[in-house]
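Entry 12.
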Amino acid sequence: MNGLVSVPRENGETASGWVYRTLLHNLVGLVLSPGMPVSEKTIGDSLGLSRTPVREAFIRLNRDHFIDILPQKGSYVSKIDPVFIEEARFLRLCVEKEVIARACVSFCPETMISLRANLQKQDLAVLNGDPQKFMDLDDEFHFLILRGVGRETIWRLIRATSVHFDRIRLLNLTRRADWDEIVSRHRGIADAIERHDGSSAVSDIEHHLSNVLDDIEQLKGLFPDYFA
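Predicted 3D structure (tokens):
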């Protein structure tokens, strides 16, 4: 498959696990766009693998609602379902509100330095117009807040439930409509943590993670074929 981006294979990782992660990376990056047909053989050829590990990855992706396997018709990238977006948003909001509140009570000073450096990189990503880089830095920002309160292991749980959410995020970032607003909101969160202002920080994170609900309606109009 032309354009498929291969991610580095981890030590001891099974072939099917590597295919799964590679396809997830391409799903989030919209290289495999919603509704696109996908072939076990084509992907296997692209990655230099037999069809068996690819088939195993497809089954897992189907179970996780990322690929639709239709008998006699083939396999297709699942379209974006707003129900899954809301579930991921709800989980992140519940977790991150608690984390932000704790961060405003006590936060690692060294991690605050990293958080400020991250914001500078976000400014640069905005100038360069790089949506994928900007989203990566957005993720790093939220991870650093978890690290600052000693809860970085929670990030794995958040990432595991955020693939559907991330497709919307990247699709929205390609429009470059509100990048400056996102950076401003992030900077407001960092400022509130430094001055121990839990009320402002929680309000900012609520607003930040709720904007996606408004974005969905706009994106449906712009990309109607991408949505279930």
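Annotation: The chain has ten helices and three strands. The chain has two domains: 15-77, 82-226.
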